[in-house]
Amino acid sequence: MTLEAKDVVFSYDGKAVLDRVSFSVSSGEAVALLGPNGAGKSTLFKCLLGFRRPLGGSVLLDGKNIGDYSRRELARMIAYIPQYFSAGFNHTVSESVLMGFSSRLSLFDVPSLNMKKRALEALELFGIADLAGKGVRDISGGERQLALLARSWVQDARILIMDEPASNLDYGNAMRIMEMIGRVSGEGRAVLFSTHDPNQALAGSTRIIALKSGAVLYDGRPRDVEGKLFGMLYGVDASICPVCGQVRAT
Question: Which tens digits make up the pLDDT trace of 71-89?
Fold first, then answer.
């Protein structure tokens, strides 16, 4: 399955936010959308998800315009994890994961035994089985992100879009999230996640797309990135350590 942005243009109140952005994400890829705050990452996600209609260009899902799919159809193909998740109710983690089946249930249906089994498998897979009975408001931010990943896994969408999934998390939870991204893409799903942290992009992706002022500056493999890219993005002199592969200020 492939999600493609094709010459996407968008603006707010006459101010350009996206300037002919083009790229595609396919099954098995973990693509990091890297860029500073205000680069247009969140707006681009809204266009990719069909929340906003581009003023120019198009968004295609397997060659078909994203606007031609119903919301239920899109929910079966694309899972979205926002940067901030505020639960309206204090559902248990297990109940929250079961909500991943909602696009496959009618209004008055209840989850089947097989669905409940799969939800438990997801909790085990993402290492949060011990949280099954806890309320989603009563767990940490990193644990909530893992619960959302588990929900997207049972949703069985072939494309996962994540907005700053590891921001505001401690080091341990951030590393767990990045590890899970690799696991999901390793299963053959397409993952697109945004970040402003170069080291997360280098370590957690198979491909990096660098965005600044609404335009793509780089689209390629992490190992081909040069330190000067980070100077262009963030206005600082930086290099990539040849030993540890981390970005360092110079």
Answer: 888 988 999 988 766 667 8
Q: Which residues pair with 210 in a beta bridge?
A: 34, 218
Sign of CA dihedral 224, 6, 31, 162: positive
- For residue 211, the number of C-alpha atoms closer than 13 Å in the C-beta half-sphere is 28
Residue pair 186/29 in contact by the 8 Å Cβ criterion = no
Q: How far apart are CA 4 and CA 118, in angstroms?
A: 30
Rounded Cα–Cα distance for residues 115 and 226 (Å): 46
Q: Delineate the domains of the chain, giving CATH numbers in brackets.
A: 2-249 (3.40.50.300)
pTM: 0.87
What pLDDT, on the 0 to 100 scale, is given for residue 107?
A: 67
CA distance 207 to 33: 9
pLDDT tops 80 at residue 244: no
Q: Torsion-angle region of residue 30: left (phi > 0), alpha (psi -120 to 50) or beta?
A: beta
Beta-sheet pairing, 215-220 with 207-212: antiparallel
Phi then psi for residue 212, to 5 deg, are -145, 135
Q: At residue 93, what is the residue type?
A: V
* Contact assessment for residue 174 and residue 200, using Cβ atoms and an 8 Å cutoff: yes
pLDDT of residue 140: 86
Tell me, what amino acid is at 236?
A: V
At 60, list the tokens: 């295609």
Place of tokens 């402003």: 196
